[in-house]
């Protein structure tokens, strides 16, 4: 239902590391009780070539090769660089950033998170990321999440409206979302598409997900490895203050929120429509309309050159955003 549900909040917090025409590549690792390892970042051009998968705007049924390509890239550990780390008595946070001067991929952002998670089954993380109803209880940044149509038994078109911090215009995404479960390995991937019936809203910046995904690998009955990858572009023009906020403060808190939510998911689900899981049950997914080719477009609807500053918010909107934070 939501596209990056997955994450969208996590994505955008990281996306705020983009300033002007620069691109920042980041790796986040998170505090205990999450255990983690670090991998490194290559240039965006190399990343773009690495994915032999969906093109931007392409809508089709996913193949096994799509998921295999993503898994291979997400587990590759060569070529990454760490730039920042901080240790405290109760936590350790490591952040990597890198600027790129490739003009043809201006303002596109790549991030990778790799964590070892304890006391939470892989399936709980997977279902937590899928369940739009549950997400409303823990993802405070999700303003709206809609399942628009389905593409195949393991793919859908969705809309996600992300509520951004004060001074930053809200972002939204329209994506094709695909998923797979194979040999105790769970994969969710998405990329932006263009839908004629879901046009950009006034005052909301239409952002781009070139490829965003999760790889969740079961390591035991109550533990897993979690990898999150995103090459995205928030569009607009993100001001400098957002860099430190996202990279140093927000990402660890958001990751911990996801972990806590996953640990509570099974208890919550037993009391809230326990049999409704359209990401696991195709008959339930078919309750939604099948995507129509006439509704799809090959013309980009991304918001370009939009200025994100407090000065562009009128007084009424400014106080409205502040009240809702």
From TrEMBL:
The chain crosses the membrane at residues 7-25. One of its GO terms (cellular component) is cytoplasm. PROSITE patterns: START. It comes from the Eukaryota. One of its GO terms (molecular function) is lipid binding. Residues 75-267 form the START domain. Keywords: Membrane, Transmembrane, Transmembrane helix. It holds the Pfam family START. Gene3D superfamilies: 3.30.530.20. This is START domain-containing protein. It comes from Schistocephalus solidus (Tapeworm). The lineage of its organism: Eukaryota, Metazoa, Spiralia, Lophotrochozoa, Platyhelminthes.
């Amino acid at each position: 239902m939501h596209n990056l549900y997955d994450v969208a909040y996590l994505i955008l917090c990281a996306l705020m590391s983009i300033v002007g025409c620069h691109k920042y590549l980041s790796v986040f690792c998170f505090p205990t009780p999450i255990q983690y390892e670090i991998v490194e970042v290559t240039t965006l051009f190399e990343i773009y070539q690495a994915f032999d998968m969906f093109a931007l705007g392409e809508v089709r049924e996913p193949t096994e090769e799509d998921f295999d390509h993503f898994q291979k890239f997400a587990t590759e550990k060569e070529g990454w660089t760490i730039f920042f780390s901080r240790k405290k008595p109760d936590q350790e946070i490591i952040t990597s950033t890198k600027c790129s001067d490739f003009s043809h991929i201006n303002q596109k952002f790549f991030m990778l998170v790799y964590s070892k998670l304890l006391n939470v089954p892989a399936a709980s993380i997977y279902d937590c990321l899928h369940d739009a109803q549950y997400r409303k209880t823990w993802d405070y940044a999700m303003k709206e999440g809609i399942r628009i149509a389905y593409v195949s038994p393991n793919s859908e078109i969705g809309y996600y409206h992300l509520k951004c911090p004060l001074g930053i215009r809200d972002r939204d995404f329209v994506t094709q979302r695909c998923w797979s479960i194979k040999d105790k390995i769970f994969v969710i991937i998405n990329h932006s598409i263009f839908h004629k019936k879901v046009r950009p809203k006034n005052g909301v910046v239409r952002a781009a997900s070139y490829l965003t995904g999760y790889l969740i690998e079961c390591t035991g009955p109550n533990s897993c490895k979690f990898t999150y990858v995103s090459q995205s572009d928030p569009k607009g023009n993100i001001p400098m203050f957002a860099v430190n906020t996202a990279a140093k403060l927000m990402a660890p808190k958001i990751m911990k929120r996801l972990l806590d939510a996953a640990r509570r998911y099974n208890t919550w689900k037993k009391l809230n429509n326990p049999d409704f899981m359209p990401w696991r049950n195709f008959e339930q997914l078919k309750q939604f309309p099948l995507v129509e080719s006439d509704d799809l477009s090959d013309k980009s609807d991304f918001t370009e050159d939009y200025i994100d500053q407090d000065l562009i918010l009128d007084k009424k909107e400014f106080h409205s955003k502040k009240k809702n934070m």
